[in-house]
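Take a specimen:
=====
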Amino acid sequence: MAATPHPLATATALEILRKGGNAIDAGLAACAVLAVVEPGDTGIGGDCFAIVARDGGRRIFAYNGSGRTPRRASLSWYQSHGISRIEPLSAHAVTIPGAVEAWHRLSTDHGALPFSELLEPAIAYAEAGVPVQARVALDIELYQEKIRSDPALSELFLHSGRVPPPGTLIRNAALANTLRRIAADGASSFYRGDTAKALVAFLQARGGLHTMEDFETHTGEYMDPISAPFAGYEVLECPPNGQGIIALLILRMVERLGPYRSGPLGGDRLHAVMEAARIAFACRDAYLGDPSQCPVPWDSFLEEGWVDAQCQRIHPDRRLDADLQTEIPTHGHTVYLAVVDRDRNAISLINSIFDTFGSGMMEPETGIVLHNRGQSFRLIQHHPNGLSPRKRPLHTIIPAMLMQEGKAVMPFGVMGGHFQPVGHAWVLANMFHYGLDLQQALDMPRLFPLDDQIWIEPTIPIEAQAHLTACGHKLALRREPIGGGQAIWIDHRQGFLTGASDMRKDGAALGY
């Protein structure tokens, strides 16, 4: 079974599974297709994280496919040039893209099919063209001014200067050629060949500090997942520099605070979850960064006494007065997918260019839209997420895996930038505290705290909105849906799979 945010990606995953590929093969092939058909959310110019369950779900590992700053990117350099923050549409926001290295490494180490075969569907779609889906058309409409600021982006996504309606065919022949070179030569084509040279020249022309050495020395990293119990299960997340630890902290608090008799959309539940999230985000912004340069005390975040103390700070009908607002960029777009194969290998995979259409820069020779993950850095001395050479930024994208009795029972994840740790806790509590099925748990109306406000979807009941306002929260209605999500439930006893794909995206969950 495969669950992805686009029907063509789901179909690709099933095709790879039918050819004899395993879950890793299918997930990577689907991810490559998403880089073509969801160009505003993902691409080979971005980063990637994965949690993989092998041997029937018993052997678990994570992969960190996020990139680092250039070697020349020092805080003193930015200070000497009068730069006090990393602008989202600048070359300085582009860390070395890590997705291609992660795909190739996972395929080489754990795939059953040749890596080149996994990229064939994406190459075909980029070359022949794909029809614009409804959600992609909405993203182009909402971010058309950003697209207009870059000639290559504008030429590709705005037809005669207009937003293309759903069904319009979009071709990216340059990206097809780039993918074809990667299929032939592997990751080295991206990090050492003509692609890297073109990207370095492009970024340097826009003031970037990137060099060929920065690309040539990039590597991802295998990691042990971190975990916490919830409702009789074990929840696995990637360790920092991602915010998976924050998802676990919110889960631990939510388990102590709920369930509430008012139900899943009761005002008291929403208030409690938002307060737990505000506390957790404050911890994230104070302590999280790249642990290779600044140790992250994630064990402390999950200690029983400390979690209890945070829960005791939450008043049932009053917002915390403490200044807990975040200071890092507001939102990101991402793609998440889950695949489970016949042998019950599973992959939970997430790939992103951060903001919608990333940095707003597309290198025209390669067809690559570059991400802007580096805008998350703080230009502050000695801060855990302070900018320094060869450092990974704090990341919002987090795949997850649910375990029971030593086996993987559900790869799952949500999209939506900062919403993601709240979303993990939201979906699991919807299922295990309120008895919702997988599809209901993903589709449930969403909200999360950001910029000293509560961003909410308009489907949150009016009574619950009134309760939040009475508690002192400031509400901000969202026009666009908050993220998306996919999940696959593995019933080991009865031998069947149940998949779900969030209605906020164009995707599908399908199996055979």
Q: What stands out?
A: The two ends are 7 Å apart (CA to CA).
